Amino acid sequence: MFSDFYLRTRVVCTLIALASLIGLIPVQTSAQAPDTTGGPALYPDTVVTTEHTVEVDGATIRYTAETGYLPLRAEDGTVEAKMFYIAYRKEGSDRADRPVTFAFNGGPGSSSVWLHLGALGPRRVPVVSDSTDVLPPPYNLVDNEHTWLDFTDLVFIDPVTTGYSRSTQAVDEDRFHGFEGDIESVARFIRLYTTRNERWSSPKFLAGESYGTVRAAGLASELQDRHGMYLNGVVLVSAVLNYQANAFDTGNDLVYPLFLPTYAATAHYHNALPPETQQRNLRDLLDEVEQWATTDYTVALMQGDALADAQRERVIDRLHQYTGLSREFIADANLRVVDRHFYKELLRERGLTVGRLDSRFTAQDRVDVGARPEFDPSYSAILGPYTATLNSYVREELDFETDLPYEILTGRVWPWDYETFENRYLDVAEPLRQAIHKNPALHVHVASGYYDVATPYFATDYVLDHMGLGEAYRDNVSVSYYQSGHMMYVYDPSLERFTENVRGFYQNAVPR
Known about the structure:
By secondary structure, the protein is α/β, with parallel strands linked by helices. It has helices at 2-21, 113-120, 179-196, 211-227, 255-269, 275-278, 282-303, 309-323, 327-332, 339-345, 377-396, 429-438, 457-465, 492-509; strands spanning 48-56, 59-73, 79-90, 100-104, 123-124, 142-143, 153-157, 166-167, 204-210, 233-239, 353-354, 362-363, 443-449, 477-482. Strands 1, 2, 3, 4, 7, 8, 9, 10, 13 and 14 form a 10-stranded mixed beta sheet that branches. Helix 2 crosses helix 11 (377-396), helix 5 (255-269) packs antiparallel against helix 7 (282-303) and helix 5 runs antiparallel to helix 13.
């Protein structure tokens, strides 16, 4: 009797193990501990579908929202990660004709909340124009009359360890925390979502912001070469495609001319320029700054310590004219103003610092001395509203429940693996060029903010101008500029223009 019971027990255990292996029964691990409080499961297996409406230009759009996990499995059925997503589909649309856009943010370590609740989704956080217009808690969402759902279905992806997405103990989570692992896992998600939802015949787009533009450029190549999925378009918001154009490393003089126009725009916004420069029209001023930055300033920096004293003084005078920084500070900086020093120095006499993501925002440190600010006021202004509204939104409107923390912008993905680019700067402009040359129907739109000091617009322009695109493909890339920062959509006029520019881009990128 004992032997029969033992045999039956062994058989049952074996069947349970096999079911768990192929994902029929979820395996409980320390990362997926059983809930003993009576609350919701940490990793709900079902995708929740809800129905909603939104008004756009006086017309009512009816749409469904899908919220939940898409498991990534090895070919033996082992669940390696559960990727969280929120997808919106316009009701009554033909999937064959209706574009679908896969959207994500950057970091590395950022969830998709910023593009989702800032610009693209049907619900959004109210705009915050600058430091004088910061939202007080509690926070609420409003309908987004500028939602992209008017012209494309939307799928917001949280890469592994961001948002509610997590890896399982079946694999080392570090596998997903790097340039190659990140692109490989997001590409798998896109292929699987496209297959399960019968979207292979739909026009397909990517939309990425910040490091998400690195991911988008890499995905354009990965999806084509590995999965045979050709895209119609890629939208790059606040792009960084070659790290050399953004890295303040010793000996990298390229970065200083590329940041200078953004310094000038910031000083102009805060009325910090000398009177004769301050009265200039911003765009006219930036045209002049860009010309000087790529000629006289670049030549002066290339000479290093061999630069003649008279020429050095002329450069100091011009930098003072374009940045509002004192001649003494510029001389002490050896003509090379690092971004973190600029944030602190520009308005030091007013006791204020300026933001990195959006230099229109200001704040006050404990003391005015010091080389760098205590925090980025433009990030602090949006972190609270976006975090609170997302956590409320998924439960109260999308009916998705979990007790996991939603990782808005986490450090849990660090150190990020850049092994592919060891001993050189990350560069995804080349994979993007290859993707366009292989797929001449692929169009790219780049959106940049004048007050973005994280990914300055002129650095982005420089990289685009050095991609090496064939002349026949150069019209495949378009650029738009906004008088706002990294998240240009937090400023209402920029949000409206941004949406209209992207709408026109989609119309051009989809065959008629």
